[in-house]
Amino acid sequence: MQSSFFISVADIKQLPPPLYPEVAFAGRSNVGKSSLMNKLLERKQLVKTGKTPGKTRLLNFFNINDQAMFVDLPGYGYAAVSKAETSKWGRLLDGYFQTRKNLAMCLILVDIRRSFEEEEATLYDLLLRYNIAPCIVLTKSDKLSKNQLLNNKVRISKDTGIPVEQLIHFSATTGDGRDAVRNAITQEVLISWD
Fold first, then answer.
1. CATH number of the domain that 153 lies in?
2. Do residues 110 and 156 touch, judged by C-beta distance below 8 A?
3. Residue 24 lies in domain
4. pLDDT of residue 183
5. What total of structural domains would you count in the chain?
6. 126 Cβ contact partners less than 8 Å away, ≥ 6 residues apart
7. Which of 98, 106, 181, 187 has the highest local Cβ count within 10 Å?
8. What's the pTM value of the predicted model, to 2 decimals?
9. 3-state secondary structure of 9
10. Is residue 72 within 8 Å of residue 34, measured between CB atoms?
C-alpha cells in the first residue's frame, strides 16, 4: 500500500481539488486519531502522534494508493486551547463538512472509557444532516478487560441508540479492531489495503 502526506489546510479556501473520495477522522484531542491512521496504513509515523493534546491544528490530507484521501481533523475538547482557536477550528470543520462533496465518511473516535458526549452527538447529527456516513470507533480498548469492554459498548449503544454491532472497538497497541475499521471504510470507499 502506498500512502503519503499530501497537504495541510488552515482555511477552507486552501482545500485541495476533490481528487478522490475522502475519509475523515474526528474525535477529542488525544483520542488516538493519528495512531488509528498509522495502524490502518501499517506505517509507524506517517501521521504524527504526540503526547500533548491538541497537536493537530490543521486539516491534514494523506493520499492512499491514489484511491482515497484520509483527512486527520483537529481534535476538540482540549481546555488549554484558546476560545479563539477553538472557534477557528469549528468554522474550518463546519465549512469542510458542509462543502466537501467527495467526503464519503467520517470516523468518530471515542475513548471507550468515556461516554459519547455532547460534542460527539453533535458531530454525529451533523454528519447525518450532510449525508456523510458516520462510523463510531471506540479507541483504547486494550485498557479494559473483556467484560468492561462489552459493558461499555452496551452502555454507549444505549446512550446513543446506535446498535452495538455498529460500534467498533480498536486498540492501537494490539491492533485489535483494525480489520473491522478497514472493512467499514471499504463499504464506503474502494481501497486496496495491500
1. 3.40.50.300
2. yes
3. 3-188
4. 96
5. 1
6. 94, 97
7. 106
8. 0.89
9. strand
10. yes
Domain membership of residue 114 (yes or no) is yes
Is 193 contained in some domain? no
SS3 content of the chain, % helix, strand, coil (to 5): 40, 25, 40
Give the chain's residues under pLDDT 50.
Answer: 51-55, 78-80
**What is the CB-side half-sphere exposure of residue 1 using CA atoms within 13 A?**
18
pLDDT at 53: 44
* Total residues belonging to the chain: 194
Domain contains 194:
no
Q: How far apart are CA 148 and CA 153, in angstroms?
A: 9
92: left (phi over 0), alpha (psi -120 to 50) or beta: alpha
User: What is the sign of the dihedral through the CA atoms of 22, 26, 30 and 33?
Assistant: negative
N-terminal to C-terminal alpha carbon distance within the chain? 5
Instruction: Give residue 81's identity as a one-letter amino acid code.
Output: V
Answer yes or no: is 162 within a domain: yes
